[in-house]
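dude i think i finally got it to work??
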Amino acid sequence: TGDMHANDISWDYNTGIHITTEQLGVAMGEAAKIIGHKVDIYGSDASLMAMAEVAGEMKDSVSVFVGSQETEPGDGWPYATFLADWAKNPAMTAQQVGATLSKDYTNAYSGGIYGNQDVTFSAFDMSHYDSLVAAVKTLAADLNGLSGSQLKAVKSAASNAQAFYDADYKDLFDFVAGVEKSNVQVQATTLADVKKAVQTFVIAVDSTSGYKDAHGL
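look at this
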């Protein structure tokens, strides 16, 4: 509807009631307190969720976060396939469960049970969230010191980075790779640190050919 906000989830189309990103984090925090430990896996069978902003709201209450960078087709997750694979190895760690879902989801839309559609899916190890943020903050400081002409090159890298349903939703790793190619005056170590932080934080990423430059975040 026209009243929907991009950063909210679980919209009731009749009442307009929804969950904000911040409220989602509060809910996970309360769940973790009730069970006495971090929630092993948080996952949304929903669109456009594999973002640092969303994951950050539950960084202290969730161990593994799974979701899609892109909109999800109407069929959603392949529950029968995924749960059957989990049942074969019920002792899987949260990381292994996340990786299994990522693979099964992408396979389902790669000539699998849901045919052929372009999709992407990923899993995050939330214990590395703070390191990711620190690397991005260092990059931001470097970018803030650039001249106007160099900032234009950075904006071009952002425009050309792998995008998703909303044009301003960009793949972080691909953006940094574009900044590297632009040869702007940003420390090579700063760029390398962000890419490494993404690769450490994203413990599984799978996508179809339409998202060859999607790295999960």
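The first strand starts at residue 8 and ends at 9.
im so relieved honestly
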